[in-house]
Automatic annotation (TrEMBL):
Superkingdom assignment: Bacteria
Name of the protein in its database record: Uncharacterized protein
Organism, scientific name: Eubacterium plexicaudatum ASF492
Membrane as UniProt keyword: yes
Sorted UniProt keywords: Membrane, Transmembrane, Transmembrane helix
Regions crossing the membrane: 20-42, 54-76, 97-119
Amino acid sequence: MKKLLKQAGIHKPDEMERYIVFRAQRNSYIFLISALIFWSFYESYRVYAYHTKLNLLPCMLLLLATVIQGFSQLLMTRNAVREDAESNETAHLLKTVVFIGAAASIVATIITAIIFMGVKL
């Protein structure tokens, strides 16, 4: 199996390759978040200027991207310090609970906005 993967060019990346992949992913993430923010503002401007219906797609995508990033960061940090005797896991657990509460309130706000706008699902 290792021989087959080696022939296909698939191998475990070294530190430099991981750094390059990380930087590329970071750059693409920043671009996507910036594009979603711009799109959200553009949709808000259209609603204000032309009195059209609000398109919540860019706002929801932006919300989901930030929530997924936050949860991933919290879980990876928690897993990284799980076996460290000096770490304070209670603080990480408290952050997770607060983050979940904030995410739930944001989702509830979006659902309420959809209901008040009269959007039929």
